[in-house]
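PROTEIN DATA CARD
Card holder: Chromate transporter, chromate ion transporter (CHR) family
Chain length: 179
Origin: Brevibacterium aurantiacum
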Amino acid sequence: MFTGNATVGLIDTFYRAGSFVFGGGHVVLPLLQAETVQTGLVEPGAFLAGYGAAQAVPGPLFTFAAFLGAVTTGGPSGLLGASIALLAIFLPSALLVMGVLPFWERLRRAPRVQRVLTGVNSGVVGLLAAALYDPVFTAGVTNAASLVVAALAFVALTSWKTPAWAVVLGAAGAGALLL
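Structure generated from the sequence above:
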């Protein structure tokens, strides 16, 4: 950390994560993992548990930042850490909206901007696939039983149209019994 100040470091971690997001919060998952788990700021189990809980509640994945800020092992944690992380991760998009809004109509009609956004959207699909694979699949699907639970949860969501909260509760129960 450049300043040595844990609060500034926490702001830096989540501000940078928020500034790299395009296309949804799941794109930031690998960056959040690298900045929190791999640096020792958050335990790997807490990261996955928080990510799972974030999937069970309505709202943007960015609220996961509040959980990560609350469970940090260095610097501000608890309510203060949660507040700092949540504000820092939303700040870049708020600044972008305020800066671009006056020019939005002109920008969205520009052919070059449309082509750039098409390319960025394609890149986002790759990042989402990477975020699904690592850390979710590599850390969460560790044996045949966990693969079956994950596959059943996927089928319940996509084919049976089961509410996400019910799938999370069912998968948690199945995991507690089988894993």
